[in-house]
Amino acid sequence: MVKVTDGDTVHVLDSSSTRHKIRLIGIDAPKRKQVFGTPSKQYLASLVAGKHVLILLLLILLKWHKISNTLFRIVTFFWYVYLIGSYHVIGCSLIRCIKRL
Questions:
Q1: H/E element holding 85?
Q2: Cα(99)–Cα(34) distance, rounded to whole angstroms?
Q3: Which residue, among 96, 100, 94, has the nearest Cα to 8 in the 3D structure?
Q4: Confidence band (pLDDT; 50, 70, 90) for 99?
């Protein structure tokens, strides 16, 4: 794991050192400048910092968005992120944390 952007987005390096932005499935965490954005980011970082993970693609979301009579296709990829050696799904851990609050 290389970087945590916010509570639901991380950056990872693959085996060829290519960087990928990964959006976690099932999580819609607050962004950095929103209420609870910083604690959300810090909690995700505490779970994944410096750890090896397995990334599995689950969903591809395709949306069409019209801006000034121009149609844009927006493709979003959602991923499961597993901590290697623990069979721990990061998204499920964050959901349990939110329910405790």
A1: none
A2: 19
A3: 94
A4: low
